[in-house]
Amino acid sequence: MRISSRQYTMNFIHSLQDQQSKLAKTGEQMATGKRVITPSDDPVAATRILSLRESVGMSEQYGQNGTYVRNRLETEESMLASVTDVLQRTRELTIAAASSSMSDQDRISTATEVRARLEHLMGIANSQDANGEYMFSGSKDVKPFTYNGANYIYNGDDTARELQIGQDFNMIQSDPGSEVFMRITEGNGRFFTDYNPANTGAGKITGGQISNVTLLTDHDYTITYNGAPVGNEYSVFDNSLGAALPGPFPQGSPLVFDGIEVEVGGSPAVGDQYTIEPSSSQSVFATLDRLIKALETPKASPSDVAKIAFDMDKSIVDIDNALDHILDMRGRIGGRLNTLDGQDYVNEDMKIQLKSTMSSLEDLDYAEAVGRHDLQLVGLQAAQQTYTRAQGLSLFNYIN
After folding, report:
1. For residue 170, is it within any domain?
2. pTM for this one?
3. Domain boundary at 279, 301, 326, which?
């Protein structure tokens, strides 16, 4: 078989270009530190690397989400700490104002400070985070709380904002204002007592206690002072059943019925009524608002004195309930922060493992690459020298 000079030359050139390409590829690998630069370098490894890179990106996003959630939770906890301070100070003022030695003017001064505390509380409830988002509006971007002159209105929703901080793991980043400020248990948790605003006597009902939890019916009751007959001065009517309860219910002794025990002290007037209702939720704003109204009411009559005394006692109980509720919310936030710490470790460990696996597939073995580079360089130089010498192997060079 005869080989033309042109064919011979082209074969040499292709061989040189191939060796130069391999040498350049090795140099690029050494410059980047990567074994797999393009999918053609190792299609199987390249596919796996892309998957790992996506997983690393997700882990990093989880970490960023975790940082955002942590900031929101710490902001909420700080705000609830301020709420706790407001309620504790209000409780101190209420206890002091409950003293019979406080004059009407002193109580008005106390009401002024309590009103300032209430406004501060509203400011906290309507506060925003560093991004300008309302902390307690749920999933809505609206001012959470407004006052229409009679009632405190919650404008948000009941959705607790969540953010994904791990695979199949979402974390609550903030609680809705309805849960934080509006759902404060009233009374002792099962029922609460109150008076009829139309009462004219100086009787005062206690907050009541549970005498037998198994007998509780969660019904509404009305207690009426009849004044007679002796030994059965009170009547109790079950509003839920529409029937009177059998007595006797004597004056000066606790009234015990359906697992409830209450007592009416002082000097009620005939026809005065008191109510017992199942515990429900009320807002912390309503608690302070009722306290302010009680403080601003002058003690013009024995009836006013009895009503104000009841309102002060009730306010203390309701403030204590609010404090317990806020402390419980802060405990939940603390639990979330602890869980977030653990998830941060999980995300970081996962990211390290993913990067380690990706490195084993993608990164270059420099020792092997240097040896291969030197060998390819020697091969290229030898090929170049061989080609140069081969160029002189022509019959015409030997014809004189």
Report:
1. yes
2. 0.79
3. 279
